[in-house]
From TrEMBL:
GO molecular function terms listed in the Swiss-Prot or TrEMBL record: hydrolase activity
Pfam assignment, any one: Abhydrolase_3
Family: Belongs to the 'GDXG' lipolytic enzyme family.
Ranges for domain Alpha/beta hydrolase fold-3: 119-338
Signal peptide (from-to): none
Protein name (Swiss-Prot/TrEMBL): Alpha/beta hydrolase fold-3 domain-containing protein
InterPro entries: AB_hydrolase_3, AB_hydrolase_fold, Carboxylest/Gibb_receptor
Amino acid sequence: MILNSHSFSFPLTTLLPSFKLRKPLLIHCTQQQQQPLSNMDSTSSTIDDEIAVDLTPVLKLYKSGRVQRLAGTEVLPPSLDPTTNVESKDVIISKEHDISARLFIPKTNYPPTQKLPLLVYIHGGAFCIETPFSPNYHNYLNSVTSLANVIGVSVHYRRAPEHPIPTAHEDSWLALKWVASHVGGNGSDEWLNQYADFEKVFLGGDSAGANIAHYLGIRVGKEKLDGVNLEGIFYVHPYFWGEDRIGSESNQAEYVGKVHNLWRFACPTTSGSDDPLINPAKDPNLGSLGCKRVLVCVAEQDLLKDRGWYYKELLEKNGWDGVVEVIETEDENHVFHMFKPTCEKAKILLNQVVSFIKGA
């Protein structure tokens, strides 16, 4: 979870003490802006000001259904970035469902003399905030695209609470199928038609986006995408959870219930924290992950760290026949690389991701 507008972020545990969830959550969410008081009667204005769920500093949900996002609202337009020499553009995948993507292509050697690997990236933000157009995500994709020499597709999915989980997962799957529609060179986007190597496709994501990337990997393994070879997936500080405590989670009991509630907020219909969408240990299809290489990046101070290590153990126990590696960054917290992108450890993490892509 990232506060792009101030080039600032916070660990997951900073958010949790302010989380308040009044059950049951039976509120119709809207994206409307608050109306002027002169156009509202006193009753409606009171309802509009009453908070149902307080997720400060991420968002507030009011009893009227209005959603006020407090973070991840700043956007950058697509551009030719002078630092990385990467060009970006926005494309519509589904106008009906408001699914789109920002595409990135390196221009240092353009047109490419050979087809480029393809990275489909899913942004984080607790399933509730951020977009591919957020400054930190835009800049991150510029860097990865340039250093790894790939075409980047950063997916814009619909977010909770207006569109509860599994909407984000289903939107991302539709986006991945849209990417695959270019395999024969007859898709709607010329960059993908002409320059994408569909024999070298990667998935990646951070936090909630890593959760979605895992879901996509399982679905590719089960359903296949004709003409697409998924080489590997990388997860940066993946948002996985579960009912039973593992590792250092037992020493952070004050946060456990709040993490459960955070998940329920984004997915009100969930069966709980052992839902396969949040707990890979409960997914009978885990061994079907549709790639041969996985990189899991965790941070030492992150509440979710042990879930990343556990994911490696789960893959090895569930019949998946690929290679999984875990990299841990010392003395850092959740998605530190997004709010401190120029620090030395963020640069190291970036290079580890790039090496993973280039190593295929």
